[in-house]
Amino acid sequence: MKLSRNLYLFLFLFSLVITVSVSQTTITKATNVTKPGCKRQCGNVTIPYPFGIGPGCFTSDWFEITCNTTFNPHKPFIGGLEILDISDSTFRIRNKVASKCYDQHGNITENNPVFTNLGWTSPFTFSQRNRFTLIGCDDFALFVGPEQVNSTSGCIALCSRPGEVVNGSCSGVGCCQTSIPKGMKYYYTSVSSMGANHTSIWSFDPCTYSFMGEKERFTFNGVSDFLDPNFRNRTRASVPILVDWVIGNLSCSEATSAGVLGCQANTQCIDSNTGVQGYRCSCNQGYQGQPYLDPGCQDINECEDPNSNPCEGICTNTPGGYTCSCPDGYVGDGLKNGRACVAENSHFPVIKFSLGMGSGFLAVLLGITWLYFGVKKRKLIKLREKLFQQNGGLLLKQRIMSTDRSMDSTKVFTAEELEKATNNYAEDRILGRGGYGVVYKGILNDQRVVAIKKSRVMDETQIEQFINEVVILTQVNHRNVVKLLGCCLESEVPLLVYEYVSNGTLLDHIHGKGVMTWLSWENRLRVATESAGALSYLHSATSTPVIHRDIKSANILLDDNYTAKIADFGASRLVPIDQTQVTTLVQGTLGYLDPEYFHTSQLNEKSDVYSFGVLLAELLTGRKPLCMDRTDEERSLATYFITSLKENRLFQILEPRVVKEGTLEQLQEIAQLVKRCLELTSDERPTMKEVVIQLEGLRKFTQHPWASQHGDEENENLLNTEPEPSDLYAVSMDLSSGFSKDGSLIYPANVLR
Ligand SMILES: *[C@@H]1O[C@H](CO)[C@@H](O)[C@H](O)[C@H]1NC(C)=O
Ligand SMILES: *[C@@H]1O[C@H](CO)[C@@H](O)[C@H](O)[C@H]1NC(C)=O
Ligand SMILES: *[C@@H]1O[C@H](CO)[C@@H](O)[C@H](O)[C@H]1NC(C)=O
Ligand SMILES: *[C@@H]1O[C@H](CO)[C@@H](O)[C@H](O)[C@H]1NC(C)=O
Ligand SMILES: *[C@@H]1O[C@H](CO)[C@@H](O)[C@H](O)[C@H]1NC(C)=O
Ligand SMILES: *[C@@H]1O[C@H](CO)[C@@H](O)[C@H](O)[C@H]1NC(C)=O
Ligand SMILES: *[C@@H]1O[C@H](CO)[C@@H](O)[C@H](O)[C@H]1NC(C)=O
Ligand SMILES: *[C@@H]1O[C@H](CO)[C@@H](O)[C@H](O)[C@H]1NC(C)=O
Ligand SMILES: *[C@@H]1O[C@H](CO)[C@@H](O)[C@H](O)[C@H]1NC(C)=O
Q1: Of 65, 118, 579, 742, which residue is most buried, by most CB within 10 angstroms?
Q2: Distance CA 669, CA 165 (A)
């Protein structure tokens, strides 16, 4: 008895030794990586099908790799871009770094913009694991992608002393990073100085760089990066760009029904989630190999490698898996972490015992499961309560109760209510995305349609500010301000519920395709007056003056009657602002941004006046505030408007319809108003109140007896037949932290105060 047990043990150990040594020799089993007869490697890079070198070796022209043999080792290229490696859903390409360098007089000594293109209709997109990075101390970079994904993002990096720069931190001081939109296939980037051409910081920062690259591969080394003459080459070598690929231009189901699905045996088809149409094939669990080529994926023999199976006893390979068991005479589950294998003791009623154990165990398991779910549910309730408190629910209740206007206008929604309203935050309910979060369309129980803004995570110190904001906003009651209906504090991040404004943003109407018949001179003046009125009210009529900070055409929403409603105000307060912390981020929009506020960091309500001036200029000229396609002179609308006015060319830049419908005196007066709003020193700008008075004066002239009510109605009837975009926040709330085509961007809060 004893002998035989030892014998088993010996055999068992022996077999283990054997499997280990066998697995080491056969672990690299040859599989078909490429089509038969095709080159498997170019230099160090393995080229798996659907990629391939030479005719007949790739699935479609996009996947053709050229191997340049003039290099040693040889280098593979795809569409002129050097490939570094290829995996089953991504490949990496060699980076390019845009740069600009200055001498101590501020003359530019080096300027390299970068254009990278994966192919307009290609199945490749830049992975969202890339970041767009700018390093420099006086610089901004624009990052222009295809119009298709509405993506001009920007980054500003500032600093005035080497000491401010923190190694490893890209939050706007010396280094700025933004994420990139989904579906991007090409981009252009160049860098420019914010002001002084590096003259004041030249000693420690002569150059500025911008590039896209895999986030994990880049670490910012502070000032030593600025001074490193090899920075471009080093970054090119160490920070690749990650590219997502899919094949075909059909989804799995479309390809299947068209009979062109390229996935072989033991694979599954995965629909593209990269922003382009297409699919990938992937080996099933427990299989490996080449999913695109016959004979498809092969079973992995887990038993060959002791690290890929947990068996202690006998491992039996099965298709797609394995089973563990014990040798004869032993009992147990054969698992290393389980009951393993123990010698059978014939005197001990093992089977009965284990049966008993089994049912006992089952009962215990049931009990535990029951307890688990009970506890989990209670935990969820607890968590919600905790979040409510953490998000300042109590504080809010207190505040709301202590103000005169009580709960009638503001509601604290429950998490469930909003989940239901948005169909559990379904993708198809998304109205827009922005730096602060995502806006969903929601339908409440009482069938009211609302817009629900889901913030990003914020830290606890911001809560009180957030609460203040909510309290202020609920006290604001103005026809031309988007109404905040309530909020929800039970969720991890605060949710804000706004009235739903159906007719899109002013930006869409000014710059959108198609002729906007309603945008007459009179209606432009009306929208301007309404917006000005709301701003004036925010600046003076509320108990705490509210400075909007981000007035732009994308933040003016229009309702069914084309009445203007200012949106998103105070939203910037949702972003941490803490002047003692340089790492915090605040939003502003390049092109609308008050230069004085930018340079002195002194925020006052005149900054809104400046932005409003830009908005007026936009309404009058139909031009974008910042247009990188134009010449230097015309790039910034504010500057261009002022120079044109000075040089008596005003009527050339105004929109023809405005010139036709407005009188000479009106146009001259409103141009002077724009000029005053755009004064560089805030003291010289008018207050919003004055702006309103002047605009209202101008409107009186416009309301000719023949152009009043009746005309309006006609216009509106005309318009009702026009399809209008209903995604109200589509432009103002852009992609995660990059910003929209109107150039919103991120910059550090320390420049603000
Ligand atoms: C490679 O492909 C050929 C033909 O498609 C097939 O006969 C062969 O078995 C494959 N080899 C491996 C190792 O899968
Ligand atoms: C690439 O190949 C060269 C020689 O062909 C070799 O020296 C080098 O180590 C290889 N690099 C990698 C990353 O495999
Ligand atoms: C290989 O690279 C060299 C150097 O960049 C270039 O001159 C040559 O045209 C390339 N050859 C091919 C076949 O692309
Ligand atoms: C560089 O700056 C110096 C001093 O401001 C100036 O005299 C010189 O003309 C500039 N050179 C160029 C090429 O612009
Ligand atoms: C881009 O903007 C246009 C209108 O401004 C909108 O219709 C379109 O859906 C946007 N595209 C994306 C991908 O956001
Ligand atoms: C910076 O350089 C540009 C181009 O050389 C020049 O037009 C601009 O006036 C310079 N700005 C300052 C503040 O020196
Ligand atoms: C930042 O990193 C550089 C290079 O890695 C190093 O020389 C420098 O001492 C670091 N500075 C700080 C403040 O850690
Ligand atoms: C960077 O690389 C280029 C080309 O490979 C080379 O000509 C240049 O000298 C390098 N620059 C530095 C500073 O090493
Ligand atoms: C999909 O690709 C095929 C061939 O690659 C092409 O003929 C077809 O027009 C494409 N369809 C779309 C919708 O792009």
Answers
A1: 742
A2: 47
